[in-house]
Structure formats: C-alpha cells, structure tokens
C-alpha cells in the first residue's frame, strides 16, 4: 500500500516495541511497531542503533560504533544514480541484488509507517534511495528517505511505498520523490507510461499526492508538458493570444489529453481538478465522452489560482 511521508502521529502506538532509534548522529522516537527478530531486538527495547548507510541494527552501542567504522556503504550507497540536483541524488537498487539492504531498510521504515506489509520478500521490488551530500563535505552523504516500486505491476503502479525519515520531513522531499517516480515512468516505454501510486492510499498519502497532482497539472497548463521547453510553450501561448486579438484565450481539452501529457491516470487528473475548483464537465453526451469531460477556459482559471512559474 502506498504511504506518503507524514508528520508525527497524534498518538504513538503504546505497543510499538522499540521506542527510539539512533540513526547516525540523530536520535528520534518511533511511531509504530516493526517486526525485528525477537532474538536480536526484544519487545521492551528502549533504543535501537541503526546504521545510517546500510540500516543494519543492534541494541549494543559498542557494536554499532564498531560497524559504522567499516560499513561497506559509508562512502557511497548501493545502486545506480538516476537523479542528481543541488546536492540531492536518487539511487536505484534492485531488491534481488541488495536483498539484505532492502530488508533492513523495510524493517526500519515500518517504525514510521502504520500499514507496511513487505519486509523480507524484496526481490520483486526496485528501491530508490534519496540522499543529500553537502558540497563542502563530498565524502559524507545522508540518506533522507526512499520509495519502492514493483518491477512488474499489472495495475500500472509507479510507486508502492514512500517515506521521508522524520528528521527530514516538511522540506518538500516527498514531492521530489513523487516527481522522480513519474519521470521514471516516462522512461519505461516509448511515448511514456501512464501510472500512479499503489492503492489504497493512506489519508496523508492522499493529501500529499493530491497537492502533487495539482502542481503537476498547473505546470502543464502554464509551462507545457513535462520535459518540454517552457519558454517555447509560453511564447506559443502569447502568440495565440495575440492572434485572437482581444478575445480571451481559451483552450478545449479532455481529461485524457491532460493525463497523456502529464503521465497521470484519468482518475488522478479528475481528483486534482476537483480540488482545484476547475472541474466543469459538459452536460451532454453521457456515454464515452462522459469519461473525459471538456474543460473550457482551464488555462486562464489556473493562472489566476496558482501563481507559479
């Protein structure tokens, strides 16, 4: 089930087992129970030490300190870099090739996700790790969160699970990972791949994705489709307006048109448009056309509500 990064829950689970974790030089509270092996992590564990590079875990501070000095991933995360900008990077790794890493990451993530079900059967998933490296200290990177996706999804899911670790939340990093998931979908086949997050979404996940979809559609209306030249698109808009003399510039498009241009599922486009307040289906034609209603004057109304680039 797809889960979005979220704020601390109003009430932490009393039976969550591990109460706090140490991740590198950070110490913070857990939210939920995770199924760590009881022979290694007892139910009354107060502090669990987790390697910030490989997510191996121990209840022994000395063993933790010894491991961090020799961790094989202390200088670079596993996998292949698929995104890089401003110190942030996303690394793709195969759960089959990095099975132990993926399992340990999943166990750690469960401490902050209420409904996560995949912990050990990781071979059918790809994992995308978000890191940040300070340019002033290029040998020292931090893992901030991740998302996973099935290698083969019959439901066109481009994301299965997403989490930004608690110390790094409220920095728009979840939105960054969502954007990467859609970018990867566009690379998967010629002409792009229409997909979305795995359902059902948590309430927080639904709100996070709705905001992301709204912004994605608004960008399309104002700057053109993802991957296009925004300056050229804006110039074409201006030329079209001039050609129409003083008449308001209006466009007609279908929900399907928007979905194809943005790589979004029709149902997700409709959800976003309703939240934007620009949902205006036609009253006529209730068969096939009812599934893809016309949306007159959309670009103008969007520009008034979303003053973005």
TrEMBL record:
Recorded GO MF terms: histone H4K16 acetyltransferase activity; zinc ion binding
Q: Which Gene3D superfamilies match?
A: 3.40.630.30, N-acetyl transferase-like, Winged helix-like DNA-binding domain superfamily/Winged helix DNA-binding domain
EC number(s) from the headed UniProt entry: 2.3.1.48
Naming one, the record's GO cellular component terms include: SAS acetyltransferase complex
Q: Where is the active site?
A: 198
One GO biological-process annotation of the entry reads: subtelomeric heterochromatin formation
Q: Which UniProt keywords apply?
A: Acetylation, Acyltransferase, Metal-binding, Nucleus, Transcription, Transcription regulation, Transferase, Zinc, Zinc-finger
> What subcellular locations does the record give?
Nucleus
Pfam families, A to Z: MOZ_SAS, zf-MYST
Domain of life of the source: Eukaryota
Do you know which InterPro entries this protein is assigned to? Acyl_CoA_acyltransferase (IPR016181), HAT_MYST-type (IPR002717), MYST_HAT (IPR050603), WH-like_DNA-bd_sf (IPR036388), Zf-MYST (IPR040706)
The MYST-type HAT domain sits at 13-309
Does the record carry Oxidoreductase as a key word? no
Q: Which family does it belong to?
A: Belongs to the MYST (SAS/MOZ) family.
Q: What does this protein do?
A: Catalytic component of the NuA4 histone acetyltransferase (HAT) complex which is involved in epigenetic transcriptional activation of selected genes principally by acetylation of nucleosomal histones H4, H3, H2B, H2A and H2A variant H2A.Z. Acetylates histone H4 to form H4K5ac, H4K8ac, H4K12ac and H4K16ac, histone H3 to form H3K14ac, and histone H2A to form H2AK4ac and H2AK7ac. The NuA4 complex is involved in the DNA damage response and is required for chromosome segregation. The NuA4 complex plays a direct role in repair of DNA double-strand breaks (DSBs) through homologous recombination.
Name this protein carries in UniProt? histone acetyltransferase
């Amino acid at each position: 089930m797809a889960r979005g990064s979220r704020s601390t829950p109003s009430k932490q689970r009393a039976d969550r087992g591990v109460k706090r974790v140490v991740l590198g030089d950070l110490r913070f509270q857990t939210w939920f129970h995770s199924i760590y092996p009881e022979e290694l992590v007892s139910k009354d564990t107060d502090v669990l030490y987790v390697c910030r590079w490989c997510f191996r875990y121990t209840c022994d501070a000395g063993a933790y300190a010894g491991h961090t000095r020799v961790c094989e991933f202390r200088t670079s995360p596993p996998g292949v870099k698929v995104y890089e900008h401003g110190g942030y990077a996303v690394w793709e790794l195969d759960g089959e090739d990095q099975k132990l890493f993926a399992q340990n990451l999943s166990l750690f993530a469960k401490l902050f996700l209420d409904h996560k079900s995949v912990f050990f059967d990781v071979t059918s998933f790809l994992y995308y790790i978000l890191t940040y490296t300070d340019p002033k200290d290029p040998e020292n990177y931090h893992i901030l969160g991740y998302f996973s996706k099935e290698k083969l999804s019959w439901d066109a899911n481009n994301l299965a699970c997403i989490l930004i670790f608690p110390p790094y939340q409220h920095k728009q990093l979840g939105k960054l990972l969502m954007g990467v998931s859609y970018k990867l979908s566009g690379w998967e086949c010629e002409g792009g791949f229409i997909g979305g997050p795995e359902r059902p979404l948590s309430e927080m996940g639904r709100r996070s994705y709705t905001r992301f979809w709204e912004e994605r559609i608004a960008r399309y209306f104002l700057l053109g489709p993802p991957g296009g030249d925004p300056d050229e698109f804006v110039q074409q808009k201006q030329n079209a307006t001039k050609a129409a003399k003083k008449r308001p510039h209006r466009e007609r498009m279908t929900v399907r048109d928007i979905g194809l241009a943005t790589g979004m599922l029709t149902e997700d486009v409709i959800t976003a448009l309703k939240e934007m307040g620009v949902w205006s289906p036609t009253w006529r034609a209730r068969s096939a056309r009812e599934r893809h209603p016309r949306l007159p004057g959309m670009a103008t109304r969007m520009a008034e509500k979303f003053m973005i680039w």
